[in-house]
Design a protein that fits this description.
It is an enzyme of class 4 (lyase). The protein is α+β, with helices and mostly antiparallel strands. It has 9 helices and 14 strands.
Length: 293
């Protein structure tokens, strides 16, 4: 059973042990590029069309050439098929600006599949512990300074990874970022959703958060069953008073926050329903991706 699958945009399955990135690639030198992370389940990429659309938007924000979505779609399907249907996988679509100073450089593009991290199954089953950390910026910054690329999924993830390492030193699993106004933003690799009775809330994109694929799938499914779903700014204190807090991401899917800043948070009666809504929403997007492709 393979532990890594690498496919380039020409559809060729490459040896993942062989070098594939030049030392002067600007994605390596400066983090100048974009990516998407997709769950592979039953040999197929979940919610692929939503991820491809977000990849295109991120590339546009960085003034990268418009991605050829048909080629990306084909490469993803090849990689997922090579990975197989016996286990889940983490699939990444990576696009960089290419080599520094090389004329007519078209960029570096590839699809990589690796095993799902061990932390994922535990987070799904038991929930996670999280701490709140300030991002040190105002919610107005994304609109006032679009060149800072809030809301784009770029390769510049050093700050996010540093926050997660800090959380680990504090014996926490994850982080919820907040603004200077104490408004909730997002996690380093997740979207924040709070639940109050039959209402689900998530911060709006205008606050500088990355639009969530799994959150979007949840809202689409939940609204069909009578939930009120809203994009609305809320404060750190609202995390404490909510009936439940969730971190949603493309690989973990739904992780309930079981403790926040050391405060235990009991599961609500609807916890199982929310998890099921996420699963159904992702499954529905999966079928839509099949239909679209």
């Amino acid at each position: 059973m393979v532990d890594r699958v690498l496919v380039t945009l020409d559809g060729v399955v490459r040896d993942p042990e062989e070098p594939s990135i030049h030392a002067d690639d600007i994605g390596v030198l400066r983090g100048d590029g974009v990516f998407e992370t997709v769950l592979v389940r039953d040999g197929k990429a979940c919610a692929l069309e939503l991820h491809l659309a977000r990849l295109r938007r991120s590339a546009e924000a960085l003034d990268l050439p418009e991605p050829d979505l048909a080629r990306w779609r084909s490469a993803v399907e090849t990689a997922a098929k090579e990975w197989g249907s016996e286990r889940e996988g983490t699939l990444r679509l990576v696009l960089t600006r290419g080599r520094d100073g090389v004329e007519a450089e078209q960029g570096t593009a590839f699809v990589l599949v690796v095993p799902v991290p061990d932390r994922v199954n535990k987070a799904r089953a038991e929930g996670i512990s999280a701490i709140t950390l300030t991002r040190g910026v105002s919610v107005d910054l994304a609109q006032n300074a679009p060149w800072l690329l809030f809301g784009a999924k770029t390769l510049s993830y050093a700050t996010n990874m540093a926050a997660l390492r800090f959380a680990a030193r504090m014996n926490a699993d994850d982080v919820i970022f907040t603004s200077t106004e104490h408004r909730v933003l997002e996690g380093p690799r997740s979207t924040v959703v709070i639940q109050r009775e039959k209402q689900l809330l998530t911060p709006p994109a205008r606050s500088g958060v990355l639009p969530g694929i799994t959150q979007r799938a949840l809202f689409a499914e939940a609204e069909k069953t009578g939930w009120e779903c809203r994009y609305e700014s809320f404060f750190t204190a609202d995390l404490i008073t909510a009936e439940s807090v969730w971190l949603l991401s493309s690989v973990t899917l739904a992780a309930r926050v079981a403790s926040l800043d050391g405060l235990k948070m009991s599961p609500p009666d609807c916890a199982e329903e929310i998890t099921e809504l996420v699963e159904r929403g992702i499954a529905r997007q999966w079928k839509l991706s099949d239909w679209t492709s």
